Amino acid sequence: LLERVGFIGLGNMGFHMVNNLINAGIKVCVHDINSNVMEKFSDKGVCTKETPFEVAETSDVVITMLPSASHVLDVYTGQNGLLHRGNLLTPWLFIDSSTIDPQTSRRLSATISNCVLKEKKGCGGSPVLLDAPVSGGVLGAEAGTLTFMVGGLQEAYLAAEPLFLSMGKHTIYCGGNGNGAAAKICNNLAMAVSMLGVSEAFSLGQSLGITASTLTKIFNSSSARCWSSDSYNPVPGVMQGVPASRNYDGGFSSKLMAKDLNLAVASAEEISLKCPMTSEAQAIYMGLCKEGHESKDFSCVFRHHYSGKDE
Ligand code: NAD
């Protein structure tokens, strides 16, 4: 049912995800507006198409991995988009792995389920959207160890599971449409707040005379232990192989973190839920971007927000 896979958005994440599909022996057809990256695939003999619609025409399932909601809407509902000629769609399944807000994802799902398939197949004879954002970053995308958090029809999720497992290590079904998107922005807001908490504590600790290395040992065997202290330490030199130890290059950019916090704040506002920590983290990351650190890894908050040093 899902033999022919279309993939749109061959950036930092999508590029590696497609390679993992290819390595798993899956037939793919790709599109990106960036012709350089398209060439990398056509040079390897991979099918490339000029528009999302052309990809859809030759696919049972199309996966999208795009920067933000406006790009996603453009690729699905824009001219020559995936849903162009919505009464004669070829793919029965669409999987959006971009990090976007749950509301847009739910609206898009309703639009897709109102389209008609060329041939009746898949779940219930109507086309289906799954929101399936990922965690694990560029390294996880390359290594094929991503975690997929998936919202939408459970039957479609089960059909797509082997595809997720060709690109990742874990898949978690989160419930109806938009729940994958909701899970992703909640994960990232918790990650932002814990990174700020750890950075603040290291900064205070250093000022009070205790080194970050000692404090890290204490945190990691005490109740403050978290991913930001034991796997992604923000203090240069404390851990090898993390962005903090290579001038905060690579990793997950402050710009993407600011984007995800904006999504979390907007979602909270829409339902009038107070999220003060999220708002504070949003202000800090927007500030870092304004100061020119938008392409540095988000753990650079330790250097730029707390120690105030500009190297
Ligand atoms: P990216 O900017 O590197 O890649 C996006 C790709 O989409 C680019 O190649 C771009 O040319 C292409 N694109 C944009 N508009 C297009 C259009 N209209 N038609 C066709 N192609 C188009 O972004 P990324 O880092 O790969 O992230 C993709 C998504 O994954 C984002 O939503 C991001 O928040 C999320 N994400 C990223 C990471 C990470 O560490 N980079 C981790 C988890 C989730």
Task: Describe the protein's topology.
Elements: E1 4-8, H1 14-23, E2 27-31, H2 35-42, E3 47-48, H3 52-57, E4 61-64, H4 69-77, E5 93-96, H5 102-113, E6 128-131, E7 134-135, H6 137-143, E8 146-151, H7 154-167, E9 168-175, H8 179-207, H9 212-220, H10 227-230, H11 254-270, H12 276-293, H13 301-306
Parallel strand pairs: 1-2, 1-4, 2-3, 4-5, 5-6, 8-9
Antiparallel strand pairs: 7-8
Helix pairs in contact: 1-6, 8-11, 11-12
This protein binds nicotinamide-adenine-dinucleotide (NAD).
What is Rg? 21 Å
* CATH superfamily label of the largest domain: NAD(P)-binding Rossmann-like Domain
Strand content bin: 5-15%
* Biggest pleated-sheet summary: 6 strands, parallel
The name CATH uses for the topology of the largest domain is Rossmann fold
Q: Would you count the extended β strands for me?
A: 9
Residue-averaged pLDDT: 95
How far apart lie the N and C ends?
Answer: 54 Å
The SSE string, one letter per element, is EHEHEHEHEHEEHEHEHHHHHH
Bound ions, cofactors and other small molecules, one mention each: nicotinamide-adenine-dinucleotide
